[in-house]
């Protein structure tokens, strides 16, 4: 009966209906006919579905945390949460290749970019589609030359719309060994990994006075074809450093004068209402009294214009380790001092704690919408796409 009805519908109407369906349903519907089996996984349909999903309101939270397996082993786990009560929507996933003998509190959790996210530690980079559960281990970065050591300052992941290519960027310093980390013998370098070539390449003519990356759990975002990091500029002033994925050029954006002091408060970076947003919050170090300082949330109303910074929230003192993200434009997720997930409602001034615990300082979180985007695997010699 259903098959007969479908045969009477015009093809464009059927495609329109399919584009409104969730990914899990589409995966099942591929077996209905040969036409759908070819149509649904095609790049044209996937891109159309991605554009439709950008306007959809349904999204969920992916929480990354480090869990201790035994005294000498830690694992990286992803939890998938939905609704204001952050209920789990599927079982947790343990991420391969990110096991460690120490707490994974320096892991980077970047994205989403077209439905793909990158999980990065000091050695491995994993590209992952949470909807399809497909992942791929990217080739390792080149080792430092003999007699030298590398210190990674920052990483980013994004999409080059001109080359139609996903890229990973790594900012690092090279030191003589010995002496390790001699400030007078270091050299700033930047490497870019192209999915199309499956190869890391070093960028030339990198400014040796490039601002230092400022590390916090939410200090990097991908926004409008560029990676953004909080950074420390001249005279220890906080700024935003960004790298355009298309031109592969670095540039900077100044922060408000009242929120650019490196000494004292901590800072975070998020995208709120499709705008770059900066969070200034009390230093969690016991030497500082967070009760004496308020959190401030500043939004850049017009992209790239310094004068458009506007303070949109002042938040009462919260005893947190760090903010993680702002969801639905009002619910701020944070990590507590003990390593548990808490939320703060910016509208209702309400704090809620959840039964989601990780090793202290290891929590990361991103907002995610379903996507069928396939993980590129251009080279036959590259690591193949695998399934969780």
Automatic annotation (TrEMBL):
<dbReference type="InterPro" id="IPR036047">
    <property type="entry name" value="F-box-like_dom_sf"/>
</dbReference>
<dbReference type="InterPro" id="IPR017451">
    <property type="entry name" value="F-box-assoc_interact_dom"/>
</dbReference>
<dbReference type="Pfam" id="PF07734">
    <property type="entry name" value="FBA_1"/>
</dbReference>
<dbReference type="InterPro" id="IPR050796">
    <property type="entry name" value="SCF_F-box_component"/>
</dbReference>
<dbReference type="Pfam" id="PF00646">
    <property type="entry name" value="F-box"/>
</dbReference>
<dbReference type="InterPro" id="IPR001810">
    <property type="entry name" value="F-box_dom"/>
</dbReference>
<dbReference type="InterPro" id="IPR006527">
    <property type="entry name" value="F-box-assoc_dom_typ1"/>
</dbReference>
<protein>
    <recommendedName>
        <fullName>F-box domain-containing protein</fullName>
    </recommendedName>
</protein>
<feature type="domain" description="F-box">
    <location>
        <begin position="3"/>
        <end position="48"/>
    </location>
</feature>
């Amino acid at each position: 009966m259903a098959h007969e009805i479908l045969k009477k519908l015009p093809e464009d109407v059927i495609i329109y209906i399919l584009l409104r369906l969730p990914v899990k349903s589409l995966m099942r519907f591929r077996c209905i006919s040969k036409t759908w089996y070819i149509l649904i996984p095609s790049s044209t349909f996937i891109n159309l579905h991605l554009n439709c999903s950008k306007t959809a309101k349904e999204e969920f939270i992916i929480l990354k945390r480090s869990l201790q397996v035994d005294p000498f082993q830690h694992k990286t786990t992803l939890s998938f949460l939905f609704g204001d009560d952050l209920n789990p929507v599927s079982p947790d996933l343990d991420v391969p290749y990110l096991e460690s003998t120490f707490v994974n509190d320096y892991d980077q959790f970047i994205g989403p970019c077209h439905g793909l996210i990158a999980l990065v530690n000091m050695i491995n980079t994993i590209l992952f589609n949470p909807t399809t559960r497909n992942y791929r281990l990217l080739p390792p970065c080149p080792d430092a030359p003999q007699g030298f050591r590398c210190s990674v300052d920052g990483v980013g992941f994004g999409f080059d719309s001109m080359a139609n290519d996903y890229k990973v960027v790594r900012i690092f310093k090279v030191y003589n060994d010995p002496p390790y980390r001699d400030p007078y013998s270091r050299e700033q370098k930047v490497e870019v990994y192209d999915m199309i070539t499956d190869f890391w390449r070093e960028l030339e003519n990198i400014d040796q006075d490039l601002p230092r990356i400022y590390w916090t759990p939410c200090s990097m975002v991908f926004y409008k074809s560029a990676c953004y990091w909080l950074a420390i500029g001249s005279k220890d002033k906080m700024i935003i450093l960004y790298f355009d994925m298309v031109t592969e050029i670095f540039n900077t954006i100044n922060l408000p004068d009242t929120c650019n002091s490196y000494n004292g408060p901590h800072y975070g970076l998020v995208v709120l209402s499709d705008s770059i947003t900066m969070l200034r919050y009390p230093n969690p170090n016991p030497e500082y009294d967070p009760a004496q300082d308020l959190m401030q949330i500043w939004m850049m109303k017009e992209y790239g214009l310094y004068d458009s910074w506007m303070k949109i929230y002042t938040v009462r003192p919260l005893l947190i380790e760090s903010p993680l993200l702002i969801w639905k434009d009002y619910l701020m997720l944070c990590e507590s001092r003990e390593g548990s997930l808490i939320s703060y409602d910016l509208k209702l001034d309400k704090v809620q704690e959840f039964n989601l615990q990780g090793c202290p300082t290891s929590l990361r979180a991103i907002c995610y919408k379903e996507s069928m985007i396939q993980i590129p695997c251009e080279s036959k010699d590259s690591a193949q796409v695998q399934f969780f």
